[in-house]
From TrEMBL:
It catalyses: oxidized coenzyme F420-(gamma-L-Glu)(n) + a quinol + H(+) = reduced coenzyme F420-(gamma-L-Glu)(n) + a quinone. InterPro entries: F420H2_quin_Rdtase, Split_barrel_FMN-bd. Belongs to the F420H(2)-dependent quinone reductase family. NCBIfam families: hi_GC_TIGR00026. It comes from Aquipuribacter hungaricus. This is Nitroreductase/quinone reductase family protein. It holds the Pfam family F420H2_quin_red. It comes from the Bacteria.
Amino acid sequence: MSVPAPGTGAAAGPAAERAWADAAEHVEVYRRTAGAEGHRWHGRPHLLLGTTGRRSGRLRTVPLVYARARTAAGERLVVVASAGGAERHPAWYLNLVAAPAVQVQLLDRVWSTAATTAAGQDEEAGWAAMAATWDGFARYRALTARRIPVVLLGPPPTDLPDPGEQAPDALP
């Protein structure tokens, strides 16, 4: 059974009309427009996560769907290393395991923080938040043999907008 990519269903909405050639184009447009284009894509909020390449030592940036979750340490931004339900961890996750210092861009805000793999109640809170953002994450979790990591990003700046309050991208 294959799981569609985020936003590929009929309910994806008007922002789903934008097709990125690849993640690099999504990152470029997000940066150039300070997230005005690319933050809401296929109806879901995206941030940019920069990790240090474990072999190259260079900054590698990927766009990821995120959510907010209440954890034992307070509110955190959460992403999952689902790799579209693949049986292997995505490179960005392997990078942050090797070097947990990451860079985050959310709309026009950019900051450095630490990333950790969630466990226990924090992991479940992260899964609940991500599944509420897109139910495909729950399907990935159910259909993938590997344990898909939930990643908690260190405390976000206190004045970040709520992802649910953002208007969809101004896309044709």
